[in-house]
Amino acid sequence: MGKPDPGASDPNGDAITPESLAALPIFPLPNCVLLPGGLLPLHVFEPRYRALTRDALAGDRLMAIARLKPGHEAEYFDRPPIHEHAGLGRILCADELPDGRFHILLRGVGRLSISSELPAERQYRRVSARLLEDRVSGRPERVRSAHLQLCMLCDRLADVLDEGGAQLRELIKAQTCAAACADVLTAALVQDPDDRQLLLETLDPADRLDRAIAHVARVLCELAPCTGAPN
Prior knowledge:
The protein is an alpha+beta fold and 231 residues long. The protein has 2 domains: 18-132, Roll (Archaeosine Trna-guanine Transglycosylase, Chain: A, domain 4); 140-223, no CATH class. Helix content is 38%, strand content 24%. The chain is built from 7 helices and 6 strands; from the N terminus they run αββαββββααααα. A hairpin with an 8-residue loop joins strand 5 and strand 6 (126-132). Helix 3 packs antiparallel against helix 4, helix 3 packs parallel to helix 7 and helix 5 packs across helix 7. The longest helix is centred in the middle third of the chain and has 21 residues, at 140-160.
């Protein structure tokens, strides 16, 4: 891949300006949800999204990944309906191919609520959006306890994985924030688009941690049913 953007790995989105959110390009995709901390490789081949990528690379390297709603097929080349909540991504790396296609790598840097869609003045769609902040429910002890439980479960999962166990441990150790730990872990492990959309829309870190714990426990039971999972 191409040269990384030095600021692109910032999970807190410090470089995200109101101007960026007021006219944010969106890349609608079926059954694709970008969670904060997650990585999304894309092969960009349609002319409208090539234009989007060029403009993003020339600017703040931001775009929203919006999940298309069911029944989008009939309107795919127009403006099919999308979910109101979307993932904000920053281009980490980009390679432009000789024929104008791109290979890009996005990292999720935030949750968005789409306020409105802008008039069709570009080849691609743009929206006005706002960043969604975590809504802490006043359960700090529960968050700390759930974070510890999630780390313990992931350590057990790493022991039974055929490959990737060491990477899973490093991924968990690198996250000092409980909310970020839940996000990064579910971004890497949860595959079902409906589950990912629900995680994207869940603003309470305690609830996201609970969902992450339940997912890892299910995976553990499937891989090592005789060991069970801790309560």
